[in-house]
């Protein structure tokens, strides 16, 4: 291979927008998609409030709420095709639920259950990732493998603005661009990496601008405009499946609740900032637009709320009792072939069957 052979000859020319891409109030509504997004947003908001309540009741160890940024998550899930893969972070349980994962299964990790709580292959949803951005190189690896095999698969990796300060983020983007992997990176820029504002993480005009340095398109979108997020991600995923390579999408949104229930957000941000973002809440924004165009009736809105209440009731019932525990499982699935040390530990514990093949 010569140096010329290894040089990228066709660089993407799509630069990030100077202003976030929007559709609400600016584009004709899609009479099929927009009501579907609305129903998913109603369910998502109720899911967030119910999970937060269950955390206060001790049914979850911790819950990183996505209240305020539900548009990013529901639009992301609905933009995926049935064979595509989703690689979520710990705050993206709503995306997994919208993709079809049972809510209780999506919360398994946050409840402290063993393993993932669901079969990633059955749902095409990678395990929820708590360490920042470590899921992104895995997303690129799966996407690259799919491309080598000729599979018509695109991969969507979700990450927050805090994750863009991690090395895994940069390594993932670089590998994705070099390999032209069919992967899309969605950065949900909610303004804060726990207590660190974006201004202390980067001096770039936007996170989307970072895409140019890696040789891929960057898109900037209003993350509280569900149709806009869906449109941008659909284009990027279609481009990935067609062999066009990766795209970096930055969605501007806001984390209305604290980082988790263990965080006191009042120590680093003021009420006026939160109030300003509540005025841009994605749910009432979409509802107003649907009603303006006659695409949402009172009956339809009530049906969406009833559906959301059914989801919440199911979640309460599922988490209302402790899961059955099998202590011997501590020794199962640690190694494909249990080591002598593991066998010894299992025998001493009295759970030898769990550690033996």
Automatic annotation (TrEMBL):
Cofactor(s) essential for the protein: thiamine diphosphate
Cross-referenced Pfam families: E1_dh
Keywords: Oxidoreductase, Pyruvate, Thiamine pyrophosphate
Ribonucleoprotein listed as a keyword: no
Record-linked InterPro entries: Alpha-ketoacid_DH_E1_comp, DH_E1, PdhA/BkdA, THDP-binding
Gene3D superfamilies: 3.40.50.970
Domain Dehydrogenase E1 component: 50-308
Keyword Oxidoreductase attributed: yes
Identification of the protein by name: Pyruvate dehydrogenase (Acetyl-transferring) E1 component subunit alpha
Species per Swiss-Prot/TrEMBL record: Streptomyces johnsoniae
């Amino acid at each position: 291979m010569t140096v010329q052979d290894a040089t990228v000859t066709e660089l993407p020319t799509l630069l990030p927008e100077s202003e976030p891409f929007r559709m609400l109030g600016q584009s004709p509504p899609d009479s099929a998609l927009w009501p579907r997004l609305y129903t998913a947003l109603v369910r998502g908001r109720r899911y967030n409030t119910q999970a937060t309540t269950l955390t206060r009741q001790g049914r979850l160890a911790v819950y990183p709420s996505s209240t305020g940024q539900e548009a990013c998550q529901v639009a992301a899930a609905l933009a995926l095709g049935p064979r595509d893969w989703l690689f979520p972070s710990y705050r993206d349980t709503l995306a997994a639920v919208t993709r079809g994962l049972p809510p209780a299964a999506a919360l398994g990790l946050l409840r402290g259950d063993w393993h993932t709580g669901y079969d990633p292959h059955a749902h095409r949803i990678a395990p929820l990732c708590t360490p920042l951005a470590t899921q992104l190189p895995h997303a690129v690896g799966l996407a690259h493998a799919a491309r080598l095999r000729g599979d018509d698969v695109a991969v969507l990796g979700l990450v927050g603005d805090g994750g863009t300060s991690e090395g895994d983020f940069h390594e993932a983007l670089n590998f994705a661009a070099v390999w032209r992997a069919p992967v899309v990176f969605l950065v949900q820029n909610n303004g804060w990496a726990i207590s660190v504002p974006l201004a202390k993480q980067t001096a770039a005009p936007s996170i989307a601008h970072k895409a140019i340095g890696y040789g891929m398109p960057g898109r900037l979108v209003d993350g509280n405009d569900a149709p806009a997020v869906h449109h941008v991600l659909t284009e990027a995923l279609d481009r990935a499946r067609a062999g066009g390579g990766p795209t970096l999408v930055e969605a501007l949104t806001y984390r209305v609740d604290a980082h988790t229930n263990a965080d006191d957000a009042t120590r680093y941000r003021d009420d006026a900032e939160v109030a300003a973002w509540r005025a841009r809440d994605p749910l009432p924004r979409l509802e107003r637009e649907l009603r303006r165009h006659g695409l949402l009736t009172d009956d339809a809105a009530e049906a969406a709320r009833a559906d959301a209440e059914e989801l919440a009731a199911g979640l309460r019932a599922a988490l209302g009792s402790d899961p059955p525990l099998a202590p011997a499982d501590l020794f199962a699935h640690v190694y494909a072939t249990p080591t002598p040390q593991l066998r010894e530990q299992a025998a001493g514990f009295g759970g030898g069957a769990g550690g033996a093949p």
